[in-house]
């Protein structure tokens, strides 16, 4: 009789041992199922992102196509461009570059920071290129014209290029307080500088540059004309638009130097 009574006890013991194992197996299965679902969700998210990227690319392609169809043709090139303005390099250089630019334009600053020094080193300082700056402040930039006027006033004290570099270096701070600060740092005659800022003739000089730039087809900044130098004019010019790298200028200049 004692042997038969031990059977339920044994069964209970076996059940007690098996149940945790089954529970662990169920938990593992649930974890595996959750991991599989999570992996599927991750893959679905990747596919959705890829679809979104494809749609974005298609939209951009359609936009670009529309712009290409509606973009106005570039204005015709002028026969010559006058070199009136602050200049670097030899007056007898065979080639000239005329830049129409402004001091609040981010692309103008990019050109100044990344390309101008290379042009100066390779072509201006070696006597191959005469480099001229002409003001073309855009209406969308409220401090562009005042900065151009400040540069003109510095030019009257033979400090245009120092002011030019300083204005670009401090582009986020453009405004009257900065102009006076830079005039002091450049040891300009402050009283003469301040008087120049207020003179109507100084603003008219800047406006004349803008009018002339418009007459030769300048529509944005920076815009460059490159050609042979003859009788203080740039003749048969090529046009380069935007903050292009040195290679774009080197190609044009080297062809003219041959």
Short description:
It contains eight helices and six strands. The protein has a six-stranded mixed β-sheet.
Explain how this protein is built.
With 258 residues, the protein is α+β, with helices and mostly antiparallel strands. Helix content is 61%, strand content 14%. Strands 1-6-5-3-4-2 form a 6-stranded mixed β-sheet. Strand 3, helix 2 and strand 4 form a beta-alpha-beta unit.
SSE topology:
Blueprint: H1 2-70, E1 80-82, E2 87-88, E3 95-101, H2 106-124, E4 129-135, H3 144-155, H4 160-169, H5 176-185, H6 190-198, H7 200-215, E5 223-230, E6 233-241, H8 246-257
Parallel strand pairs: 3-4
Antiparallel strand pairs: 1-6, 2-4, 3-5, 5-6
Beta-strand content: 5-15%
Number of helices: 8
> Residue ranges: pLDDT <50 for 5 or more in a row?
none
How is the biggest beta sheet arranged?
Answer: 6 strands, mixed
Global mean pLDDT: 87
Termini distance?
120 Å
Tally the beta strands.
6
Key traits:
8 helices; 14% strand; elongated; 61% helix; 6-stranded mixed beta sheet; 258 residues; single chain; alpha+beta
């Amino acid at each position: 009789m004692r042997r038969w009574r031990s059977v339920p006890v044994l069964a209970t013991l076996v059940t007690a041992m098996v149940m945790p194992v089954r529970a662990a197996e169920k938990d593992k299965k649930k974890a595996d199922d959750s991991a599989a679902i999570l992996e599927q969700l991750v893959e679905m998210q990747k596919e959705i992102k890829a679809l979104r990227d494809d749609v974005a690319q298609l939209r951009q392609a359609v936009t670009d196509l529309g712009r290409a169809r509606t973009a106005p043709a570039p204005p015709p090139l002028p026969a010559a461009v006058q070199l009136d303005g602050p200049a670097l390099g030899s007056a007898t250089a065979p080639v000239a570059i005329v830049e129409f630019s402004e001091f609040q334009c981010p692309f103008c600053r990019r050109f100044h920071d990344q390309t101008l020094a290379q042009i100066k080193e390779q072509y201006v300082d070696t006597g191959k290129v005469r480099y001229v700056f002409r003001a073309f402040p855009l209406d969308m930039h409220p401090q562009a014209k005042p900065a151009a006027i400040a540069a003109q006033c510095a030019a009257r004290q033979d400090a245009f290029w120092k002011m030019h570099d300083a204005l670009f270096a401090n582009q986020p701070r453009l405004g009257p307080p900065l102009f006076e600060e830079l005039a002091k740092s450049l040891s300009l005659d402050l009283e003469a500088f301040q008087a120049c800022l207020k003179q109507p003739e100084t603003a008219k000089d800047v406006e004349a540059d803008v009018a002339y730039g418009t007459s030769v087809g300048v529509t944005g900044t920076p815009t460059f004309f490159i050609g042979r130098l003859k009788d203080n004019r740039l003749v048969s010019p090529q046009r380069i638009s935007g903050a292009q790298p040195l290679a774009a200028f080197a190609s044009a200049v080297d062809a003219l130097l041959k």
